[in-house]
Every structure is written in C-alpha cells, then in structure tokens.
Design brief:
41% helix, mainly alpha
Length: 69
C-alpha cells in the first residue's frame, strides 16, 4: 500500500484481501466511503523523492492521530 509510485499501489480491495488482515478484518463492520479518498500530495504535481514521501506520510499519520485526541 505504501508504494512510492501510486500506479503500483494496491487497490483497497487487494489490500483488504491480503493475508495480513485475515484474522483481524470484520467485514460486517466495514462501510463504504461516500466519496473517493484522495491524497493531496499525489495530486500536487510535486516531484516526490523517497525522503519527501516519507515526510508527507508522517504528516498524514500525525494529523489523524490528532483527530483521535
């Protein structure tokens, strides 16, 4: 899921079908999003280095951790 190039990233269905989630997934609790999820930096046109992509993913994680607090 964290492929550097978005073209090579798994789809959500592929990711959820991965054996990693087999024991923890609860399909009966899943809901489908009402709109497509986009990651702003994929749309920015910015040339992303591996280091910059790591920084951007970390910012996203920190943002969502803050929403829980």
């Amino acid at each position: 899921m964290l492929q550097f190039n978005p073209y090579f990233r798994l789809t959500i269905d592929q990711a959820l079908a991965h054996p990693f989630f087999e024991k923890i997934r609860k399909p009966e609790k899943e809901v489908e999003a009402s709109s497509k999820v986009t990651v702003e930096f994929d749309q920015s046109g910015e040339k992303l280095t591996r280091e910059r992509l790591r920084e951007l993913f970390l910012e996203e994680v920190k943002y969502f951790q803050g929403l829980k607090g």
